[in-house]
Design a protein that fits this description.
The chain is an alpha/beta fold and 305 residues long. It contains 10 helices and 10 strands. The strands form 2 sheets. A 6-stranded mixed sheet has the order 6-7-8-3-9-10, with helices on both faces. Strand 4 and strand 5 form a beta hairpin. Helix 1 packs parallel to helix 7, helix 1 packs parallel to helix 8 and helix 6 packs parallel to helix 7. It starts with 17 loop residues before the first helix and ends in a 12-residue tail after the last helix.
Length: 305
């Protein structure tokens, strides 16, 4: 397969230049990966997507997608722009209801995932665009990741009743642990909006991690980052998996990051899954090469976004 930097994505997708990609892959290394899911003793995947199809009008976004994510696994989902990657995450989190198929979270089946219950299902997500509270401190932004776990009443918080005060101390202690984990101690009391972009992306990761989710969905976490920032965030993502046992679904355009970080890689093209395997298997797959190099597709009317 051509080198990662030789893969040509569709307009407005960005790949690092050849030398930057090579440096990034060398810096990331192979890492310590999760066991082969087929050898896992776990009987139930953390996430199972079963025959999911989705269309907008006559345009197919997803076509009969099946995907399993196993405990402790980093599973990347890649593909050219418009392949259906973000649509898939939106189905997993209940923002979209599929036309057919279902999603299982920890074995529990949903035809339409209830967004209000995501935190209780152990699911957290980051988005392509930053969604921090720019006027709050780093620590307070991370505490916001525990909002679904608040049990004290509004009045109890206002008047500082003992139960509410204890809860706040627990939440701030949990956020402080994540601040240390992500090496944010020096900026913990600074407002998030005044920090460099790469640090803000790290804060957003911290807000998603603070509740110790079973499943973490990362939607293009490296977008707009420098090579150094990508290397740092890649290390934090891998360490989060190893430390907290979190399963991770990663959508990312940087092929160097994907191949160096992931245990398995699924490839979407025109809403269809064309490959799913180890990074080495996917890099050698002719259908993947064709998709990235722009080989003509025989697409039915109404197919593919």
């Amino acid at each position: 397969m051509p080198g990662a930097s030789a893969l040509r994505q569709r307009p407005d997708a960005v790949l690092t230049p050849r030398d930057a990609t090579a440096a990034l892959k060398a810096a990331i290394g192979t890492g310590v990966r999760a066991q082969d899911p087929s050898a896992s003793t776990a009987a139930t995947p953390v996430l199972a997507i079963e025959h999911v199809s989705l269309a907008f009008g006559g345009v197919t976004a997803l076509a009969d997608i099946n995907l399993d994510v196993w405990p402790g696994e980093i599973h990347a989902v890649i593909g050219p722009n418009g392949a259906g990657k973000s649509s898939l995450l939106n189905v997993v989190t209940g923002l979209y209801q599929p036309d057919r198929g279902r999603v299982r979270h920890g074995g529990r089946p949903f035809a339409h995932v209830p967004t209000a219950r995501l935190a209780r299902l152990g699911v957290a997500r980051t988005f392509q665009n930053l969604s921090l509270f720019k006027g709050l401190t780093v620590l307070d932004n991370i505490v916001m990741g525990l909002s679904a776990e608040v049990r004290s009443s509004f009045l109890g918080q206002i008047f500082g009743v003992p139960a509410a005060a204890r809860e706040e101390r627990r939440h701030r202690a949990a956020a402080g642990e994540i601040v240390e984990f992500l090496h944010l101690t020096e900026v913990a009391d600074r407002t998030a909006g005044g920090l460099p972009y790469g640090i803000q992306k790290r804060v957003e990761l911290g807000r998603a991690l603070v509740a110790k989710p079973k499943l973490l969905l990362l939607d293009e976490p490296m977008a707009g980052m420098t090579l150094t920032e990508k290397r740092e965030l890649t290390g934090f993502i891998r360490t989060a998996r190893d430390t907290y046992g979190t399963s991770i679904v990663l959508i990312e355009h940087d092929i160097g990051v994907v191949m160096g970080l992931s245990d398995r890689v699924a490839v979407l093209d025109y809403g269809r899954k064309i490959a799913d395997g180890t990074p080495d298997e996917v890099q050698a797959d002719q259908a993947v090469i064709d998709a990235y190099l722009g080989v003509a597709h025989d697409v039915d009317v109404g197919g593919g976004i």
